[in-house]
Every structure is written in C-alpha cells, then in structure tokens.
Amino acid sequence: MRLAAVLLAAFLTGGAAASPLAYGPWTGAPDAHAVTVSWASAPASPARVEYGPLAPGWPLDLFPLAQTYTPSAAADREIVHLRLDGLLPDTWYVYQVVFPDGSRSPVGSFRTAPPPGATVVFAVVADTQWQWEGTNRVRLVAEALDRGPFLYHFILHGGDLVETPIPSHWEFFFRSMAPVLRWAPLLPVLGNHERDSITYYQHFTFPPGGGRLDKRWWTLRWGDVVVVGLDTNARRPQDYVDQVDWIRESLSGPEPHKFVIFHHPVFSSDAIYHPGVEGLQTLWHPVFVELGVDIVFTGHAHNYERIERDGVTYLVVGGGGATLRPLGPERLEGSRVAYDDHLFYLWVETGPKGIAVEVVGVARQVEEEIVPSATILDAFTLPRD
Fold it and tell me: Which of 48, 257, 307, 308 has the most CB atoms within 10 Å of its CB?
C-alpha cells in the first residue's frame, strides 16, 4: 500500500488506541444551519470538534472551524452533545472529535438541509436490539448500509435500538452501527425495548418535538420532505390525542413528500408475534389518509411487508438485526410483498418525479445460520402528484 493511502486510512479511522472516546461520534437534530455532534466519553474529558465544509481538496484542509467542550465535573462516563451552528445551508460538512491527548475520532460527515426541489436520500432501519452469540447481525446491516460519506441526508430508526436500555447494550448498538452512523444524522423513535428509559433521551438529539423532554415525538422538515416521528409506547390516552394534533400540524405544510415513522405496525400479517394495532387503525390511519401521507415506516414485527391501504403505503421494516420472526400463513388485505427470512434496510430517494424505495437484503436466515446475501427484496416508486 502506498504511503498516502496508509496516511489516509489512519486519518479516517481516528487516532491513538488509548482514548477517552468510548463510542461514537454520531450526529442528530439537523437543520439548514446547525447539527449536534455527540459521543460517549469514558472518563469525562475535554474535547473539541474540528469541522468545515467539504472542499475540493478533500480529505486535506478539512477543518477550518472548531468548537470546544469542557465537562462540568469528572465522571466515569458521559454522553456529550455539542451543537455546531452558523452552518451554510445545503452543504456537506466533515468533522472530527479531538481529545487533549491527541487522539481523534474517525472522520464523519453530515449535510445541512437543502431548499425545496432538491433530491433527498435517506435510509431506514429498525429492530437492531441485541444478541448473545454468533454473527453480529447489527454490524452486518451497518456495513451494508455504509456506502461512504456524502450520500445519506439522514438515517431513520423505527425503534428497539437495544434489547435493554443499559450501558453495555447502548455501547453494543453504537459500536455495531459505527460504520454508517459517522456519515449521517440518526433520528430514532422509541420502541418498547427502550422502556421510555432516560438513557434513550440522554443519547439522542432531535428536531423540534413534544412529549417527555420534547423528544417523544418530533418533526423533521427537509427540502421537499417532512418526516414525523411518533411514539406508540405511550400509556396515557392524552399522549395519543396530543400526537394527533401534532400529526395534523406537522403534515399540513407545503412539503409534497410526507413520511411518518413509529414502532408498532398499524397493519401486519405477522399474526403469531406482532399483528397490527387496532387502536392505531382507528385513531391514526384515517388521519394519514386525510393528510395524504405517502409512506408509514414501522418496526416491531421482525420481517418485511409492504401493505397498501386507502392510498397510504405501510412498510414493516423490522430487519435490522433482531431475531427474525415468521409471518402468518395468511396475508392481510393490501399486502403486496413480504419476507420473513432476511435482514435488510431501506434506501429512499425523493425528487421532482416522486419517491423511489429499495428494500436491500443484507443476509438470509437459513435454518440456524445467517448467510450474507445481497439482494433487492422489493423496489417501487410513488409518482408525485
């Protein structure tokens, strides 16, 4: 390998082995002029984030700007969020976290929000959870998702990021997903396995939202796209009423491409483990139809299914690494495509002509084995009105 390639590899993967960086970095809460860079530090440590817009000489002279972070007190571990603001809109940026000992995180990238009319590309995954032995299935999906920098505008996660919201499981999630989380902001919603734990809220930053800590539900406006993240784990009836109001307000704007994401499926042919939720069919489905939602992403059922009801496309996308579950012997009305033996993720692209979706198979379960198998499980388009 040539010297230049060796230096570049070292630059992209970070610095010294002994570093306060426990895991990360990742980004969140993006908009046209700001993003939040996050990481876990063990122990708590001062740091600075060096960053700058992508330049023709990439990867040289990446970081003309920097912001510093100083912990308020010593701690064994902390989750850090540092807001970078004053950014240029519709621009790719690169960044790196640097510690006092000279160690550096891997280089990451993010994009600020584009104007209306721009092409938007994002990925969707759900139900990564945890496993106790065998192939790291979450890592398989993350490595397939990783198509390099300057591609995804953001990544959506449909909940059940972890099996249990304890430190070791969060570390497993972030280390396993590291190949792709460095390249784009992550926007999750609560799954039942997060248990509404404070650790979920501590790890993530979001667009404007509501509910607990203003993070239980949220809305991202991004060029011609609006994405509404909701919570189907709430126990108070008032939370569901409040979310209907949030849906109506969020989806009544000018954006032509409307997406919603939450954990529990409205409709599902998984009759054994996780069938659709009748309450959501009654409460939310009519609102989605009325407001012209294009696609609803959900998880919880560990399989893939595309169901079309009353002009709304529902995608069950629980193939991010959790144990796969069989679909029932009968398919629901409107079920178009279904798989229960693949890990997968979604590629979504919007533009002036409409929405294009590819469901990318990563690996197939063959009896007790997970066998890598790159394939397109489903592909469809929704023309723009």
Answer: 307
Q: What does the DSSP 8-state code read for residue 13?
A: H
* Residue whose C-alpha is closest to residue 94's, from 56, 122, 68: 56
> DSSP assignment, residue 192?
G
Q: Is the model's pLDDT at 308 over the cut of 60?
A: yes
Q: Is 183 helix (H, G, I), strand (E, B) or coil?
A: coil
Tokens of 236: 């108070």
CB 307 within 8 A of CB 340: no
Place of tokens 């571990």: 77
Examine the pLDDT at 7 and tell me if it is beyond 50: no
Cα separation, 312 vs 310, in Å, equals 6
The per-residue pLDDT for 9 is 45
| CA separation for the pair 36, 112 (Å, rounded) | 11
Contact between 125 and 189 under an 8 Å Cβ cutoff? The reply is no
> For residue range 202-243, what is the model confidence (pLDDT) as tens digits?
999 999 999 999 999 999 999 999 999 999 999 898 999 999
Q: Which two tokens stand for residue 177?
A: 């997903």
Is pTM beyond 0.90? Reply is yes
Phi, psi for residue 159 in degrees, rounded to 5: 100, 170
Is residue 333 packed enough to be buried (19+ CB in 10 Å), middle (13-18) or exposed (0-12)? exposed
Per-residue tokens: 300: 């919880």
